[in-house]
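Exercise 3.2. Students should predict the tertiary structure of the chain below and write it as structure tokens, then compare their answer with the key that follows.

Predict this chain's 3D structure.
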Amino acid sequence: MLTRQRKELLLNLLKQDGQIVAKALSEQLGLSEDTIRRDLRELAREGLLQRVHGGALPLPASPAMANFAQRQQIAGEAKPAIGRAAAAMVEPGQVVFIDGGTTAVQLARALPAELRATVVTHSPSVALELVEHAHIEVILIGGRLFKHSIVTMGPAALEAIAQIRTDLYFMGVCSLDPQAGITTGDYDEAGVKRAISQAARRTVVLASPEKLRTASPYQIAPLSSVGAIVVHAGVDEALLAPYRTMGIEVVMAGGNCLKA
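Answer key:
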């Protein structure tokens, strides 16, 4: 059995059984336990599973995979604080892309009434928050409505996104992990977010506490593409250390800016 085939089998078994016991699986498959353990180590480095003594477990799923209404109840205090900290990063005259999601809505809500800027978004919820902002021009991207995140997707959205270069992209994510990178629960949504990030000068990830150290099935991008992460001031420092080590700017929602 080739290495790639073994790894695919291990991931399928993990999804099916919820755990892998290396010793038992080596006997079942007729492979050495060392081979199984080596494959598990490599899969863990790729961010696809969690290594534990004697085997492996799935990575914890992000609560952000829930629907929009349920997500509004998660991290209720953290999201407005993150929104305010992110809004403070927008400078007059900039063109910024604001993603969809509950934290992004809080960002739009926190933008100063006197701010003169252009906001591009594929989120009707974000666009509605900006109706009363007299000096903010809003460009709403059209397409098929993805109801989970209340954003537009599809070929029309991707075509419009490709024609706009933005200064900042405030990305909402399902999951953020040092090994797995930025991930989400929908394949097409991952592609749209990737396209927006590639068209932006700088990508800023809005990371409410429940999204840290979790992984979803589809990678948007590795962490090397991230310029900054905005997190709540109450987040455990141990969760933030890997991002600082990578040289990513960490903006605390309490107003302090810490760089690696």
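Discussion points: Residues 65-75, 255-260 have pLDDT under 50 and may be disordered. The first strand starts at residue 20 and ends at 21.
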